[in-house]
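lol ok so funny story. i was supposed to be doing the assay writeup but got distracted and ended up predicting the structure for this chain instead. priorities right. anyway since i did it might as well share w the group, maybe its usefull for someone
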Amino acid sequence: MIIDVHSHCHQPEHWGREHEDHWQGSYGGEPYPVVTPESYDRVMQEAGVDVAVVFGLAASQAGVRTPNAFVADFVSTMRTPAIPFCSIDPLDDDWRDQLDEAIELGFQGVKLYPVLSLFDPLAPEFDEFYTTLQSNGMVALWHMGATPSPIGRLAVSQPMMIDEVARRHPDLTQVMAHMGHPWQRDTNVVLRKNRRVFADVSGVPSRPMDAFFALVGAQEWRTVDKLVFGSDYPLWTPAQAIANLRSIAQFRAGNLPFVADDTVEQIIHCDALQMLELSDPRVTDPIDAHSSNPRSTT
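and the output, tada:
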């Protein structure tokens, strides 16, 4: 089984000017690709992905926004079993309305982007937001770590932030994307102590030495069982992400520690649905799973 917990369906226009102005140069100068349900199905099938978690982005101060309805429509058109997550900027005055809409649409989680939204996850004003997520069984998936954007606020994008959120809300399921790169060592110690905090490995093997230390660290801190697979499609296809992860297990340097093959395979094939307590769209309609207004499937 392969569950891809980190993939993006947002379109170039959802970026506003942010990608062209601040990201394009860091990613080879190419414009952001157009993704379709058909391209999703093709790359997921190529890699043998059983279920994909699909979301966009929201960061109001950066002019970035993927409408919840767009994600719901996108997922409903895919053949690949998929779980929609919404994207919400909790600095928006209407975040409650956005979250109500997402719950009504049956979304199972929310993608948060503090580094571009410029919100401080530890500010007490957001405790209501976290409590609402938890009470509705929704996962908080954080972009955690670096950004190429000069407007980004790195101070609010570090794994230790999530430790404090978890101390206040220990039953809220949280996922730190990208293992919090480049602060993966901090990520491992946060994972070790917080029962409902996990991390995905999306983008991690794109920087092989960082990935090597991150995964060796996970072995030494015994947090491999808190890591879940994510591709970061369309930046990488799931097949590319899997191949890149496996390549890290080939590193050898004398008698130094190394990343075990079993570590990589455990991450690729972990049951992220069970770990994150997500409803399986192969059993339930992905939009009905948490919805208060189920759709007909006849």
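Residues 292-298 have pLDDT under 50 and may be disordered. Strands lie at 3-8, 51-55, 58-59, 64-65, 82-87, 109-112, 139-142, 174-176, 197-200, 227-228.
back to the writeup now i swear
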